[in-house]
Amino acid sequence: MAELTLIDAVNQAFAYEMRADKDVVLLGEDVKSPWWREAGGHVYAVEDFEELLAAAPDVVVLGTGYFGRVKVLDETLTALAEAGSEIVVERTGGAVECFNRFAEEGRDVAAALHLTC
């Protein structure tokens, strides 16, 4: 599989957003969508991030939706930090911007993006 470029990642994220019902995880060359969280609803729980925890990228960007309604549980933040990842939590629009900035800097960055509310 070809390396995911910055523009590809943005285009894919916004293409998914246009469908308005498919969340996405960007991890290395992989794009996982639909991404359904085990905790369901508007919560990011530890069990939702097994792949990200195993990969332990330098940076994990969490998009909490257009209005920022997704809650990131404290134990999720702790687990990601203990895996060695820097964590950025933003509304999804800002999260995409952060993802792009880190990718431009050559950082090993992953993103989990809630693409609706």
Report on this structure.
The structure is a single chain. By secondary structure, the protein is of the alpha/beta class. It has one domain: MTH938-like (Hypothetical Protein Mth938, Chain: A). The strands form two sheets. A five-stranded mixed beta sheet has the order 2-1-7-4-6, sandwiched between helices. The protein has a two-stranded parallel ribbon with strand order 3-5. β1 and β2 form a beta hairpin. The protein is globular, with a radius of gyration of 13 Å. The N terminus is likely disordered.
Question: What would the keywords be for this entry?
Answer:
117 residues; alpha/beta; Hypothetical Protein Mth938, Chain: A; five-stranded mixed β-sheet; 4 helices; 36% helix; disordered N terminus
In CATH terms, the superfamily is MTH938-like
> Helix coverage percent of residues?
25-40%
Overall morphology: globular
Overall pLDDT level:
84
Helices, strands, pairings?
Layout: H1 6-19, E1 24-27, E2 30-32, E3 43-44, H2 50-55, E4 59-64, E5 71-72, H3 74-82, E6 86-90, H4 92-104, E7 109-114
Parallel strand pairs: 3-5, 4-6, 4-7
Antiparallel strand pairs: 1-2, 1-7
Helix pairs in contact: 1-4
Structure described in brief:
This protein is an alpha/beta fold.
